[in-house]
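Session log. Operator J.P. requested a structure for one protein chain; no other inputs attached. Running the standard single-chain path with token output.
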Amino acid sequence: MAYDMLAGVKVVELAMYAFAPSAAAVLADWGAEVVKIMPPAGGDPMANPKGIAGLPDKDVGISFMWEQLNRGKRCIVLDVAKPEGRDILFRMLEDADVFITHLLPKARAKMGIDVDDLLTAFPRLIYGRATGHGPKGPEAPLGGFDHTDFWARSGMAHAASLASDEFVPQPGPALGDSTSGMFLAGGIAAALFRRERTGKGGVVDVSLLSSATWAFGPGIVASKLFDVDTIPRLRHADQPAATVAAYRTRDGREIYFAGVPSDKVFAELAAAFGAPELASDPRFADLASRKTNARASIEIFDAMFARHDLAEWKEKLKGVSIPWAVIQTAREAGDDVQTTANGYVMDVEGQASRYALVASPAQFDGTAPSVKRAPTIGEHSDAVLRELGLNDARIAALREGGVIA
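Structure written below.
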């Protein structure tokens, strides 16, 4: 099996929202057995079938955020704040390899499940902490969200908004959460590898801010070296070369180019335009001339692309060596020929229907992961408790006492 890298690894997740659950979802994709613990009251906002503001007000049959973030897991409802619930958690951790949580320090301490509590009891345990802005510093006790700590605080939102007339919000839900979750999953895998060599568990910390500063690292490093607020983001007409800009087609679509403005590339594009004479135009005859006359070349490219629809340009650009891509919608990205060929988006058999989920990005041995549906809340409560040795009478008593559901 290609995805048995973490076979036999047991993960206990005590978390809601998106960051920590996405890390556990990746571990499940890699073969780990993940049990998600949900509280008996309130539930997870990600399980709301109404979805995200702005989407059509209709019932699509599943909670898409819950499914994407919790596929392949088992789920129990357990009140860890109660002594009996904490005792059950500790019994679950006796043979667990990994514990993942997003709970804040105050809540972890109150429940008696902070790092020292668990690593003292289970020294081989890997403790994964998902935080907003890190485990140290004056704001360590505070929570954070991806659009604040990942997008706004990192400098990305500022840079993205420079070429706009207004603030550019985060492009979609859980962008920072999903990115940070992948980093946390990788860190946990590294900690498991270390444990195989040393026998010791430990703590893996990833914050939304840490993953954002890594993702935006070149911009942050440049700002310090050049003593500027950020690397400038230029408007369309001010780009340094025509071959690093986006152009609108006759039918209102856009094509984005990203390539070195070499003589060869410029000549190829001129030929695609049906205007090979542009390559010998003194304004564009060499790299230095094209740099000096970048605005003029962008204006010409604008006019050229406005002459034909996207479908025509796809044909005309097949022979050029410069990388280019259509600026696609989310739906188009999900149906992209490369997305489909590589199994980046996969159909999952749900309880009542089939639907698409996005696979975690790492692939092993030339195959895509096998993605399974997410559990319903509390679907495996009884089964997990029976595995711990509790009989039906005890389970019923715990349910009556509000410890489980």
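Operator note: The chain has a mean pLDDT of 94.
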